[in-house]
Amino acid sequence: MRRTRKTKILATLGPASSSPEQLRALFEAGADIFRINMSHTDHSRLAELHGRVRALEAEMGRPIGILVDLQGPKIRVGTLPGGQIALTEGQRIKLACQATSEDPGVLPIPHPEVFAALKQKHGLLVDDGKIRLRTWAATPAGAEASVEVGGVLKNKKGVNLPDTLLPLSAMTEKDRGDLAAALALGVDWIALSFVQRPDDIAELKKLVRGQAAVLAKIEKPKALESLHEILELSDALMVARGDLGVELPLEAVPGRQKEIIRAARRAGKPVVVATQMLESMIQAPAPTRAEVSDVATAVFEGADAVMLSAETASGAHPIEAVQVMDRIATAVEADPQFIVIMDAQREAPEETTPDAIMTAVHQVTHTIHARAIVCWTKSGSTGLRAARERPEAPILALTPLVETARRMCLAWGLHCVTTEDAHDLDDVVERAAQFAYDEGFAKPGERIVITAGVPLGTPGATNLLRVAFVGGR
Q1: Degrees, nearest 5: CA angle 36-37-42
Q2: Same CATH fold, 353-469 and 8-72+170-334?
C-alpha cells in the first residue's frame, strides 16, 4: 500500500479503535502510526494493542510505527469541603500543602514541590484555566492568592503553573514502569509529557538507551525558553496545544506553533501538531470549517504529522476522522501554493557533505523532473535529511532495519521499505530502480535520483548522488 500523501497521520488508540478490524480500517483510511496513551492504558492492554498493531503490520506488509505517550506528573487540588467550593473574583484564599480541607477559604494542593517553587505574583490555572489565581504571598509552608477568574471548583481538578519552574522530574514512578514495559515490547517512539528543561529529555534518553526514539511534547511555557536545547536532545517534537493553550494566552499559541515547527524543520527532525484538530468529530460525522482550516494550516506549515486524540480513541466516528484528515492533507499538498511555501521556507544547507548532497539531490530532482528520490538509509538520517528539503518528488527510503522503517513512519514524505543492505554500488542502483518500479513510483524509462552513504552501511555518511533510469521486470 502506497500513500500519495506526504504528511503523516498519527491516530490514538482507545475503546473506539482497538479491535483488529478497527485497526485495519484506521490504517486503510490513512493512519501511518498509532499512539498509545499511558494515562488510560495498563501494561496488559499495552501488550495487547502492541501485538495487534504488529499483526496488522505483518498482514499489510508495510512498516507501522507505535508511539507510547507517557503520562507525566499531574498536579491536582485535594479534597474540598462538600466536594466543591465557589470562588468569586477578588476573593482572597489560602493555599495549603495538604490533601484535604474542611475550610472553604483554604485550597488544598498536596504537592510540596509546588510550594517550594511558588513565588509572589505567580499565576495558578485550575481546571484547564477556568479558574485563575494570582499569589500575593508565598512561602514553602503555604501561600495566599487572589481570585482573578472565579467559578465552582470541584475535587481533584488539575493545576497548571505557567510562571513556575517546578522542581519535578518529567517522569514519575508510574512513567518509569510504563517505559520499561514499552521498551520490553519494542515500541518505536516514546513521547515525554511535562517537559520543562533539557535535563528532562536527557534523563529519558539515558533510560531508553537507543531502544526507541524520543519525542518531546512542548506543552509548558518553560520548555519554550529552552526550545533549541530540548530539540537538540530530542528525536522529534510535538506541539501539544492542550496544556500549551491553557498556560499561554490562546492568541499566542498559533505563533508558538509556527516557531516550534520551523525550529524542528530547521533541525531536520519530525514535528507533530496535536490536540483538538477535529474535536467536533468526537460526536459529529463531519468537522467544522474552522477545524479543516486548522489541519490545513499545519500541513501548509510543513508539519511532519498531524494527530488525532479522542477523535479516534473514544469518538463516535474514528474511521471518518482519519479519512477527513487524509483528504485535507492530500488536497493541501496538491494546492499550487503548497510547493511555493515549501520552497520559500527551505533552509540554507549546513556546511556538511550530507547537507550539500541533499541540496543537490533536491535541485537535480527538480531540474530533470525525476519521479522519485530513493534513499538507502540504515539509521534513518539520510531519509530525514531528504525529508527536510520537503521535495516535490516522493521519497522512497530503503533500509535493512525494520526498527528504522517503523520510526521513519512519523517523518514527512518517507515511504519506507525494508530490504537487505546493498552489496555494492551496482546493487545500490539496480535495486533502487527495481523498488521504485515495484512500489509504483516510476515507470520503465523514467528517471529517479538515488542517494546513499559510501562506505555502504555507514550511518550518517550520505555522500553519493546517482541518476538512474527505471527498467521493469
Answers
A1: 90
A2: no
CATH topology of domain 8-72+170-334: TIM Barrel (3.20.20)
Residue 263 has pLDDT above 60, yes or no: yes
The answer to whether residues 71 and 39 touch, using CB atoms and an 8 Å cutoff, is yes
What confidence tens digit (pLDDT) does each residue in 388-441 have? 999 999 999 999 999 999 999 999 999 999 999 998 999 999 999 999 999 999
C-beta of residue 305 within 8 angstroms of C-beta of residue 7: yes
Q: What is the CATH number of domain 353-469?
A: 3.40.1380.20
Q: How far apart are CA 196 and CA 203, in angstroms?
A: 12
Q: Which residues are catalytic?
A: 35, 76, 217, 275
Is residue 461 very low, low, confident or very high in pLDDT (cuts 50, 70, 90)?
A: confident
As beta bridge partners, residue 58 has none
Q: What is the mean pLDDT of residues 106-127?
A: 95
Output the pLDDT for position 36: 98
Name the one residue in this structure whose C-alpha cell is 531528504.
386
Q: Would the pTM count as exceeding 0.70? A: yes
Half-sphere exposure of 414 (CA within 13 A, CB side): 36
Q: Chain centroid to CA 122: how far? A: 30
C-alpha cell at 157: 481538578
Amino acid at 393: A
Residue ranges covered by each domain of the chain: 8-72+170-334, 81-160, 353-469
Q: Assign a CATH topology to domain 81-160.
A: M1 Pyruvate Kinase; Domain 3 (2.40.33)
Contact 120, 112 (CB under 8 A): no
State the DSSP code for 269: -
Q: Cell 491516530, residue?
A: 11
pLDDT of residue 80 exceeding 60, the answer is: yes
- How is 314-351 classified by DSSP, letter by letter? T-S-HHHHHHHHHHHHHHHHHSHHHHHHHHHTPPPPPS
Q: Are 393 and 427 in contact (CB under 8 A)?
A: no
CB-based burial, 47-63: b 16+ in 10 Å, e otherwise: eebbebbeebbeeeebb
Q: What grid cell was written down for 431? A: 535495486
Q: What percent of the chain has pLDDT over 90?
A: 90
Whole-Å CA distances, 396 to 154, 197, 400, 473:
53, 36, 13, 19
Among residues 201, 194, 322, 306, the alpha carbon closest in space to that of 261 is found at 306
78 grid coordinates: 485535594
